[in-house]
Amino acid sequence: MARNLLVWQPENSQFWDQTGRKIARRNLWISVFALLFAFAIWQVWSVAVVKLPSIGFTYSKNQLFWLAALPALSGATLRIFYSFVVPIFGGRRWTTLSTASLLIPAIGLGFAVQDPNTSYLTMAVLALLCGFGGANFSSSMSNISFFFPKSEKGSALGINAGLGNLGVSVVQFVVPIVITLSIFGHYAGSPQIATNTDHSTSYIWLQNAGFVWVPFIILATLMAWFGMNDIASAKASFKEQSIIFTRKHNWIMCLLYIGTFGSFIGFSAGFALLTKQVFPDVDPIKYAFLGPLVGALMRVVGGWLSDKFAASKVTQASFILMVVAVFGVLFSLPSPTAGGSFIGFFISFMILFAATGIGNASTFAQAPRIFAIFHRNQAKRFGLDEAEADINATKESAAVVGFMGAVGAYGGFFIPKSFGTSFDLTGSFIAALICFILFYCVCIAVNWWFYARKNAEIKC
User: Is 125 part of a structural domain of the chain?
Assistant: First the structure.
């Protein structure tokens, strides 16, 4: 099998039907597998942090929120770099290297949580290193965007991101189970004694939260090296790709993606800890995985909807639904005169996760269409070659998709941190939720003006 594809023409229907589709789908499914474990490592702290106080770690509430937020901060920052690496190094090579790098935080976490005297600085560094997993998203999406024709990009990117996002749900489902079992025997170390909310004690192996992913990361690394491809025509220097920083629509789409993916990953990181603070008698570990699961599956649905309908209108609907859901969360919170409703709180969050999943896919479907229309218009205006315009649109949209992922991921830091700051300043989480509603309203207005209204600048 040729590792480097010298000819790649997905818009050529004959090439696509005879050769391209099979190769593209193979790369897509390997990418999904690798990305799932990248997301698992990125969000492992959202579960592990809840258990730290019970095994003797004496961190404040704000410090715990910091540990939940730091992977998103580093992941978002690294995504800026990862956005541009695929055309420089090649998709196969970079996927292999970036997947292998996940072994560092996975193994480090496994050792660090075994000693309550491990310094907070060490824990913070390990949380930052988990950002490797989040960064992989940008390079993965950029890589897959090169393989598919425009007519199938929405679905392909929706599958890659949606099923990859399942890693968030998987980690929040698997970790609570594996930490109760001695699955690695004495090789993984001794168990810790955990003090439960009812003051009873039990043995847990919190180190398994990191160690359990190691064999899967190794498998995904080997699959990427031996099963994926590099595309010769996708080569581009950073200088060639950096033109996106001069494109207005790059920055607009980044804003919208902060609202969709930033919300998804931010609420995924903070949902369990927020639930524990608001409803202390509820064990959030039992429910935390459901939100990311709903969001990830709805991202696949959102990709399909965006290929069937105007992606901008799908984005518009998702933001409106997000506003409604946050109001539901607000009305469900405990107050001085009422105990609140966990059922209302939980249902509102599930709706919120579903809306973010749909919006994640629709915004990613918008970007290639926006740049395809933009470059075609430029070609007509200045008498340029349309084929060359299409190539430039593909390269730019791939870079934009990666960069959107970078900027959007900062929401994963700001949302958990907003909850912690809101509580420190006001004694409640209401101020943070109101800020989210106001931001979503801004996104609704911006998306409507540039892309969804009748006479929009680029209607998509």
Answer: yes
Establish if 89 belongs to a structural domain.
Answer: yes
What CA–CA distance (Å, rounded) separates 306 from 101? 33
Q: How many domains does the chain have?
A: 1
d(CA 43, CA 64): 14
Q: Are 349 and 322 in contact (CB under 8 A)?
A: no
Q: Is the pLDDT of residue 78 over 80?
A: yes
Q: What digits encode the pLDDT tens for the residues 172-213?
A: 889 989 988 888 888 888 888 877 766 787 888 889 999 999
Place of tokens 């506003």: 323
Q: How far apart are CA 20 and CA 181, in angstroms?
A: 45
We report the CATH number of the domain holding residue 128 as 1.20.1250.20
pLDDT for residue 412:
77
What is the model's pLDDT at position 1?
Answer: 60
Q: Are 24 and 156 in contact (CB under 8 A)?
A: yes
The pTM for the full model equals 0.76
Separation between Cα atoms, residue 428 and residue 230, nearest integer Å:
50
Question: Which one-letter amino acid corresponds to residue 119?
Answer: S
Average pLDDT, the chain: 88
Least confident segment among 3-12, 148-157, 310-319: 148-157
15: in domain: no
Strand partners, 39: none
The distance from CA 379 to its chain's CA centroid, rounded to whole angstroms, is: 34
- Closest of 65, 170, 47, 80 to residue 410, by C-alpha: 80
Strands 192-195, 4-5: pairing is unpaired
Range of the domain at 90: 21-452
**Domain-embedded: residue 425:** yes
Place of tokens 């639930």: 275
Percentage, residues of the chain above pLDDT 90: 40
In terms of pLDDT, which residue wins out, 105 or 9?
105
